[in-house]
């Protein structure tokens, strides 16, 4: 399995960040950074990472199943993650979530037919004082409203 | 300020660089006394550094409030093993959004705090464990680390002192439990984030089986000012045994939600009314979770209280992580605790049965109550179930789920009763069922 030169450089740097003999520590960062490029935790990726770190594919799988950001299936090009936890809920996070589901006609962890959008109801994003908040991939959007969400989705649609 | 306007009532020690042009850059940092505390610490003996941190009455800002100087003192300097410094930047406690700002606007203060900790305990490497969602923060910290290396504040023989120290960022990948220190260490080592049995504590057996100083980001960020101005000056900002200032994240039903740096012991009502602009829409205050979702809720009449660890403990709540969640009179308390329990059930790592099963059953009971399908006996059952989780798990997540639940039932029993007998939620504008 081959990765971009940039990702390879990142892997090399990562593995050197930990004490000798403790290279396994690079596992979770490697998986998340690889997911950004590959899209999901494919069997090939699991195999490749396990080979590089000298652990079994099962050991990689048991880590993947624990962390919510590591996905077995690819998300949409624009992965919209809406927080409905307490601070966001108090200021309309649930209404925002329901609005997004209606607007995109998909549910939690589903992808639109064209592969452009996916939705996920997430736990606290660390944006409580600027609630309700959401992330599109890694970008934060604060103080959201259903109208702002409509505009955001429309602008993302145009950029494709 | 891209997030919220500062308040004139703030005491800006850790946030003093917020709003300066390019405040994350090393040039801006050096122009404002940056790394001066580290230079000073290079001329101090390790015991002297730890003594100043003890004098400062700095208590862990992650939530537990453990005295930082004491924690550092537990690291066996004489151990032949390497030692590590680990910053907990996993910020996941609902209601908390302060470490993100510290790293975004003042990443070098975190590095300087970690360097000073490294000097104090004899560590030569530090890891910053940052939650995966904070990708842009990781990029900011990586830039800061590179800059500090270029200017000779990281790497080999720093400033000709013979002291070596390297710092690294490490991304998480979505897990609240990894904010718990021993689960964080498991995750740092490339494993599932389940807690470790203690003792031994991380100070003795931490990262990679070696002695480790592990503190919250805000705790490390307080260290440069403590060393620069002396522990006593920091202590004097707060109340007895609660030194310094704290970043409070005010969220929910207030006019000016935001992150505000206030002295320890600042009055909660004053924080809500004068700092955060009061409750929105002229509504009355109903309840506050004073330190994140893991802290027992306070009724409005309990909110005339000093925000420090000891005053909150006396009121049977906690100062926690500084997340102040404000709820107005229209908030359904059954729904609030139901949503919180949904979170804990999702985040329970499953290692300890009382937490894994308890959070699931509590969620089911709370959903049932909120939907109007609860039985009168459920109200006591919720409290009993939660009490049976207390102290029966390896990490505090079980307690964190149980404690607020017990408080909601005790303090807002009438609201649980108002949901019985198939009645729709009295606070719901449209009685649409809530998806859980």
Structural class of chain B: alpha/beta
Distance between the termini of chain A: 27 Å
β-strand number of chain B: 11
Largest sheet of chain A: 4 strands, mixed
Order of helices and strands of chain B: HHHHEHHEHEHEHHEEEHEEEHEHHHHH
Enumerate the spans of chain A where pLDDT stays under 50 for 5 or more consecutive residues. none
CATH level 3 topology of the largest domain in chain A: Glutaredoxin
CATH class of the largest domain in chain A: Alpha Beta
Strand order of the largest sheet of chain B: 6-5-11-8-9
What is the CATH architecture annotation of the largest domain in chain B? 3-Layer(aba) Sandwich
- Mean model confidence by pLDDT of chain B: 96
Q: State the share of residues found in helices of chain B, binned by percent.
A: 40-55%
Helical content class of chain A:
40-55%
The largest interface is:
A-B, 43 and 59 residues
Assembly state (oligomeric): heterodimer
Count of helix runs of chain B: 17
Mean pLDDT of chain A: 97
Describe this structure in words.
The complex is a heterodimer of chains A (160) and B (436). Chain A is α+β, with helices and mostly antiparallel strands. Chain A folds into two domains: 5-64, Arc Repressor Mutant, subunit A (Orthogonal Bundle), CATH 1.10.10; 78-159, Glutaredoxin (3-Layer(aba) Sandwich), CATH 3.40.30. Chain A has seven helices and four strands; from the N terminus they run ααααβααβββα. Chain A has a four-stranded mixed beta sheet, with helices on one face. In chain A, helix 1 (5-16) packs antiparallel against helix 2 (27-38) and helix 2 (27-38) packs antiparallel against helix 3 (43-53). The longest helix of chain A has 14 residues, at 146-159. Chain A is elongated, with a radius of gyration of 18 Å. The relative contact order of chain A is 0.11. Chain B folds into three domains: 26-237, NADH-ubiquinone oxidoreductase 51kDa subunit (Rossmann fold, 3-Layer(aba) Sandwich), CATH 3.40.50; 245-328, Ubiquitin-like (UB roll), CATH 3.10.20; 333-417, NADH-ubiquinone oxidoreductase 51kDa subunit, iron-sulphur binding domain (de novo design (two linked rop proteins), Up-down Bundle), CATH 1.20.1440.230. In chain B, strand 5 (245-252) and strand 6 form a beta hairpin. Chain B starts with 25 loop residues before the first helix and ends in a 19-residue tail after the last helix. Chain B has helices at residues 26-30, 36-42, 46-55, 68-73, 99-105, 107-121, 135-150, 181-188, 217-229, 231-237, 268-275, 309-314, 333-347, 353-370, 376-389, 397-411, 413-417, and strands at 84-89, 125-130, 166-171, 212-216, 245-252, 258-263, 266-267, 285-289, 298-299, 306-307, 323-328. Chain B has 436 residues and is an alpha/beta fold. Chains A and B meet through helix 2 and helix 5 of A and strand 3, strand 5, strand 11 and helix 13 of B.
């Amino acid at each position: 399995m081959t990765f971009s030169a940039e990702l390879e450089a990142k892997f090399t740097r990562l593995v050197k960040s930990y004490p000798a003999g403790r290279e396994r520590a690079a596992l979770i960062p490697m998986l998340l950074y690889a997911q950004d490029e590959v899209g999901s935790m494919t069997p090939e990726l699991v195999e490749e990472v396990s080979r590089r770190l000298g652990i079994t594919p099962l050991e990689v799988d048991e880590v993947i199943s624990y962390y919510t950001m590591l996905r077995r299936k690819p998300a949409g090009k624009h992965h919209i993650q809406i927080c409905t936890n307490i601070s966001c809920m108090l200021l309309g996070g649930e209404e925002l979530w329901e609005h997004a589901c209606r607007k995109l006609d998909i549910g939690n962890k589903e992808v639109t037919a064209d592969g452009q959008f996916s939705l996920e109801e997430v736990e606290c994003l660390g944006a409580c004082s600027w609630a309700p908040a959401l992330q599109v991939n890694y970008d934060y959007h604060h103080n959201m409203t259903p109208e702002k969400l409509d505009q955001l989705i429309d602008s993302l649609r145009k950029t494709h | 300020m891209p997030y919220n306007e500062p308040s004139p009532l703030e005491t800006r020690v850790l946030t003093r660089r917020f709003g300066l042009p390019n405040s994350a850059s090393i040039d801006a940092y050096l122009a404002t006394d940056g790394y001066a505390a580290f230079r000073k610490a290079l001329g101090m003996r390790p015991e002297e550094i730890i003594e100043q941190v003890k004098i400062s009455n700095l208590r862990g800002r992650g939530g537990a409030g453990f005295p930082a100087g004491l924690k550092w003192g537990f690291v066996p300097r004489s151990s032949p093993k390497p030692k590590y410094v680990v910053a907990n930047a996993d910020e996941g406690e609902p209601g908390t959004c302060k470490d993100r700002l510290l790293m975004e606007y003042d990443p070098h203060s975190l590095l300087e705090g970690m360097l000073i900790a490294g000097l104090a305990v004899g560590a030569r490497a530090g890891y910053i464990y940052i939650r995966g969602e904070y990708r842009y923060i990781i990029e900011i910290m990586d830039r800061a680390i590179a800059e500090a290396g270029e200017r000779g504040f990281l790497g080999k023989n720093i400033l000709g002192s013979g002291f070596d120290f390297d710092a690294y960022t490490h991304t998480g990948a979505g897990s609240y439990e990894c904010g718990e220190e021993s689960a964080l260490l498991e995750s740092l080592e490339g494993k599932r984030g389940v807690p470790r049995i203690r003792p031994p504590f991380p100070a003795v057996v931490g990262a990679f089986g070696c002695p480790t100083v592990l503190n919250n980001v805000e705790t490390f960020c307080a260290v440069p000012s403590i060393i620069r101005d002396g522990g006593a000056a920091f202590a004097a900002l707060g109340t007895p045994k609660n030194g310094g200032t704290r970043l409070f994240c005010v969220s929910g039903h207030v006019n000016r939600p935001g992150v505000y740096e206030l002295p320890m012991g600042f009055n909660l009502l004053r924080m809500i009314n004068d700092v955060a602009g009061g409750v929105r829409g002229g509504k009355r205050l109903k309840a506050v979770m004073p330190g994140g979702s893991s802290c027992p809720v306070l009724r409005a009449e309990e909110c005339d209280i000093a925000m420090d660890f000891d005053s909150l403990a006396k009121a049977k709540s906690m100062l926690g992580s500084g997340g102040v969640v404000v709820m107005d009179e229209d908030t359904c308390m059954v729904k609030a605790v139901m949503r919180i329990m949904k979170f804990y059930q999702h985040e329970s790592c499953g290692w300890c049965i009382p937490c894994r099963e308890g959070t699931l059953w509590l969620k089911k009971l709370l959903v049932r109550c909120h939907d109007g399908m609860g039985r009168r006996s459920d109200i006591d059952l919720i409290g009993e179930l939660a009490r049976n989780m207390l102290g029966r798990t390896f990490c505090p997540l079980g307690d964190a789920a149980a404690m607020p639940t017990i408080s909601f039932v005790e303090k807002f029993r009438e609201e649980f009763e108002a949901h019985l007998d198939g009645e729709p939620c009295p606070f719901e504008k449209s009685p649409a069922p809530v998806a859980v």
